[in-house]
Each structure stands twice: as structure tokens, then as C-alpha cells.
Amino acid sequence: MYEKIYLALTLLILTISHATAQNAPSDKIVGTWLSEEKDVKIEIYKSGDKYFRKLIWGKTMYEADGKTSKKDVKNKNEKLRSRNLKDLIMLKDFEYNDGVWDGGEIYDTYSGKTYSCTMKLEKGKLNIRGYIGISLLGRTALGKS
């Protein structure tokens, strides 16, 4: 009898802590985002305590047949050029620190280059800033959920 009560209480605590964790400020970026130009859709997800972004749709990510994913042909690493653009991890290893997701990198499929990056939510928009060296010398892209 006590075992059943203990099990029920444990499940209740786990359910509450899981629901609370998903409502944490750090998880506000988790989900699907559409670029302002509406030509790219990405998914941001959490793995462990880090955040990642993958490309799930883009107007120019398919071959002429509309079904075959284009490849990562501009990648500096020749071994990675056969990767599909669909579901390609483009942002990786971000950690949440006081309203900013930083410490990660962004991969640019157009140039094949990887940059330092920060992300910040501002008025419901996701501000993604890739840069070289210091963030003052970078580019910002905004996405809408």
C-alpha cells in the first residue's frame, strides 16, 4: 500500500518538475521559428542544458524536383558536403545566461563558415547575432514564432 502511495507521489513530483522546467525563462526559445522573410523555418530544441537549432524548411533547400534536399556543398570540410540541408544543425551548444543564449556557434550554409553567436528574445522576436571576434562586428537576423 505504501509503495503505491510513494510511486504516485514520485510521479506527481516528476510531472510538476517537468512542467515547471518547460516554463523556465531559458526555454522560451524552444519551438518553431519562421524568418521575417518567411523563407526559412527552423526548430530550436534543448538537449541537456544546451540549445540547438536545425533547419526544417526553406524555399531554396530543395532540388528542382521539390523533394530532394540540397546538400551542404559550401562546407569547408569536404567530408561534410554530402549532408542534407534539411534537418541540418545550424546553431549548437548555446547556454542560457541572464536573458541571453550564448557560448554557441552558428553555421552559415551560404558561405560554409561558422561564427560565434548570441541569441536574445526582444518583444517576441528572436534576435540571432553571428559575429567574428566581438559581437559589435556582426550581423543580426530576427525570427518570428
UniProtKB/TrEMBL annotation:
Signal peptide span: 1-21
InterPro entries, A to Z: DUF2147
Domain DUF2147: residue ranges: 31-140
UniProt KW Hydrolase keyword: no
Alphabetically ordered keywords of this record: Signal
One Pfam match: DUF2147
Descriptive protein name: DUF2147 domain-containing protein
Organism of origin: Flavobacterium sufflavum
